[in-house]
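dumping these here so i dont lose them again. two proteins, back to back, each one seq then structure tokens. dont judge the mess
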Amino acid sequence: MDPQRPLDRNSPIPLYFQIAENLKRAITDGTLKPGDRLDNELDLTERLGVSRPTVRQAVQRLVDQGLVVRRRGLGTVVMAPRILRSVALTSLYDDLSASGRQPATTVLSVTELVADEDISAVLSLPVGDLVLSVERLRLADGTPLALMHNYLPAGLLTAEPADALEKKGLYELLRSQGVQLQAGEQVIAARKASAHEAKLLEAPRGATVLTMTRTTFDQHGRPVEHGSHAYLADRYSFRMTLVAH
């Protein structure tokens, strides 16, 4: 699809910038929708009467802004708006709902496991105690967004969690069963997606994911949940407020 406005070749504004801004306008006003493919570089070059490096620079600008992504075999595809999430003691399900996005969850597994040394340490349980392991795929507006793995002390949830977690977030489920979430400790990092993650998130192998590892405590300071989540970096970002002391 052609950009919406003609190029001004007498303007001091570089042609690549004009092309990028015209395409950006088409994306933000809905002319180009998430999932739409841009014309390939050769077609844009011929239609706009510019060089291929100029088109490539324009498209790269959109990639850098998170508006489009290059997909092998598909070309350059318009992305859904990136989800910006504040770092707070809230669940992703609640944050998506509050921001007007449509959350959905696929529960991949719910099993009881014997806690190893690492899980025992973060949940303050004796080694060998049973823990509930929950793995979920979270979607926003039908697009895979995050792969989430959580551990909880066995017996903390009195209801069958699999069905409930298809319809609500883990924190909402915990609160509905009387667990008061008071505080959390978390670490945010980035790495390449594993083959397993890339497949479930429908992303290219080696795509970048943001990781969040969090341990949540109740009002008595007891660990009630430990999570390890992976979010696709081109669909998601964290926002933090910093205060000077």
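---- next one ----
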Amino acid sequence: MKIETQIWDWPLRLFHWLLVVAVVGAYASGKAGGEWTDWHGRFGSMVLGLLVFRLLWGFVGGRYARFSDFFPTLPRLIAYLKGRWQGAGHNPVGALAVLALLCTLSVLAGTGLFANDDIAFEGPLFDLIDKDFSDKLSGWHIKIVNLLVVLIGLHLTAILFYQGFKKTNLILPMLTGKKQLPKILAPSVSQTTGVIPLILSLLIASSTIWGVWGGNFIDYLAPLAGVQTATADAKTSN
């Protein structure tokens, strides 16, 4: 018998969908180029902040958000391939996909901090390295996007496979946080979101963006929320 059980905590679900928005925005604005380059940087900064949050939440978040719960160890992978794995969260192969996406996005965000486009855009940490090295990182940044596209394609294919062949909806649980699980796998205690870990994770994530942008990230990221800052007003008036 299966029962509906709360698995994914709301900070994890919010992270997931904000990351979708940030990645799509970064990819689209990067492809558009020109006047959209600044927006590419803004969405990239959003990705960076979200990744820092997810790293922290992987240690202090809900049970099924923690890396220790789903890290794809060799015994877990072998058990899964032999059909003996049992669990409520990510299966070991799904965990590999999650980690691959997070690592790829981390490299993209990291190289983007030092990148330039030879025209008008320079990453917030561009001045810390020489131009030649920045050009190399810019090249890697562009090439790694291709890997990201492949990983996202595999991710979407897996979602369609589970929906079509296994009749398992993977999208709905990431919206509601609830999954249908055998009673034996359902957690006996309901999950709660720790307020202090959540606040600290948000503070560290936002402080990271603040730090890389030298305290000027509010003016830079404000357009993401449709906000016109005083600094931006001054620039426009000039």
